Automatic annotation (TrEMBL):
Family assignment from sequence similarity: Belongs to the ABC transporter superfamily.
Region (Disordered): 295-318, 359-378
Name listed for the protein in its UniProt record: ABC-type quaternary amine transporter
Pfam families documented for this protein: ABC_tran
UniProtKB keywords: ATP-binding, Nucleotide-binding, Transport
First-level EC class: translocase
Length: 378
């Protein structure tokens, strides 16, 4: 969709921001640009919509050299989201979102109808549309920024640190929203971030730049994590590189031991005595609720007579589905009070189907990691 061919950008003051960049950004995919500060990410992004003109080289959009298109027209077909959301302060949220449709000549009524539809798409209420940007939280402003960028239904979306100014919890929510939207909309997205975890979560491909505008490696996240091209990339990915790789692998083919491996008890039944160890408490539907470690019997209340209410606290758990990551499974198994660090595996409806031990997760993770290092897909 977007093709950079030996693109060079040298600013008039002599700074080389981008050095002979050759890079393809596939249609319908999210390409994330990462790298140290000043390595040319923003310049690369802004060359796509001609806010910055290359010194040399060619950029093609859907096969067409962007220099052959009128810059204003080109920009109307490309959504652009920046960190400070860039909303017009004196226009309502709805009018902000309607900006591009109006420029495209849709007429006021149709443009506003489109804006209302998009408010809902990005998870905001109709009432929010009547407010002004300063009356919204940072996270809400970013959602409006995304809605505004999507309003003209562009095939390409450029996002420059769009979630950089919000707290970590809202940031994860916005990332999830973007992934959900992308499943529906299938835009070609170029996304700039400083945050490698964000890049791994969102990217279909990650391009790592280093100072001087040099592209060092561009690869899908799993390939990048398993086989960084050099020490710079490895350093950039951080010391928990191997754990990050586990976040991309699912539990799907890790064996499930039958539920008879572990003692289960209904939440409305008394737990067995402490000599039988922790048991898994499930509700009437068979959904796991937690582990209960029975209290040691005392002289006053021997094990056999201990009423269920007295049998130790319920330690809540996170039951895991096949679609959950190996990292989530490992995390859960470390906290598990059950022998062998057992985790509860559930089906799509959340009903217990069995358990998996920490050793099984480890072994599987090691094997899959080895395969990834050898270049196999994970
Ligand atoms: N208009 C300009 N004139 C001169 N130099 C510029 C201009 N814009 C950017 N630069 C320089 O080009 C280099 C690349 O800048 P760019 O903003 O693309 O980097 P970046 O990777 O996005 O940085 P950051 O992560 O800090 O936002 C930097 O050295 C910057 O100072």
């Amino acid at each position: 969709m977007i093709k950079f061919d030996t693109v060079h950008k040298r600013f008039p003051n002599g700074t080389t921001a981008v050095h002979d960049l050759t890079l393809e950004m596939p249609e319908g995919g999210i390409t994330v640009l990462v790298g140290s500060s000043g390595c040319g990410k923003t310049t690369t992004l802004r060359m796509v919509n001609r806010m910055v003109e290359p010194t040399s080289g060619t950029i093609r959009l859907a096969g067409k050299d962007i220099r052959e298109q009128d810059a204003a027209e080109l920009r109307r077909g490309i959504g652009y989201v920046i960190q400070q959301s860039g909303l017009f302060p004196h226009r309502t949220v709805l009018d902000n979102i309607a900006t591009v449709p109006l420029l495209l000549g849709w007429g006021r009524r149709k443009a506003r109808a489109r804006a209302s539809e998009l408010l809902e798409t990005v998870g905001l209420t109709a009432e929010t549309g009547k407010r002004y940007p300063h009356q919204l939280s940072g996270g809400q402003q970013q959602r409006v920024g995304v809605a505004r960028a999507l309003a003209g239904d562009p095939a390409v979306l450029l996002m420059d640190e769009p979630f950089g100014a919000v707290d970590p919890v809202v940031r994860i929510q916005l990332q999830d929203e973007l992934l959900r939207l992308q499943q529906e909309l299938n835009k070609t997205i170029v996304f700039v971030t400083h945050d490698i975890d964000e890049a791994v979560r969102l990217g279909d491909r990650i391009a790592v730049f280093r100072t001087g505008g040099h592209l060092v490696q561009c690869a899908p996240p799993a390939e990048l994590l398993a086989r960084p091209a050099d020490d710079f990339v490895a350093g950039f990915l951080g010391e928990e590189r191997e754990l990050k790789l586990l976040s991309l692998m699912t539990l799907a083919d890790v064996p499930v031991a039958p539920k008879t491996t572990v003692r289960t008890v209904r939440d409305d039944e008394p737990a067995p005595g402490p000599e039988s160890g922790p048991c898994l408490v499930v509700n009437a539907k068979g959904e796991p609720l937690g582990w209960r470690e029975a209290k040691a019997p005392t002289a006053k209340t021997p094990a056999a007579k201990t009423p269920s209410g007295d049998q130790g606290p319920l330690l809540p758990i996170r039951p895991l589905r096949d679609t959950d990551s190996l990292l989530a499974a490992l995390n859960e198994s470390i906290a598990s009070p059950a022998p062998a660090g057992l985790i509860a595996r559930v089906d799509a409806e959340g009903v217990l189907k069995g358990v998996t031990s920490r050793d099984a997760i480890h072994e599987h993770a090691g094997r899959r990691h080895g395969r990834a290092r050898d270049g196999e897909s994970i």
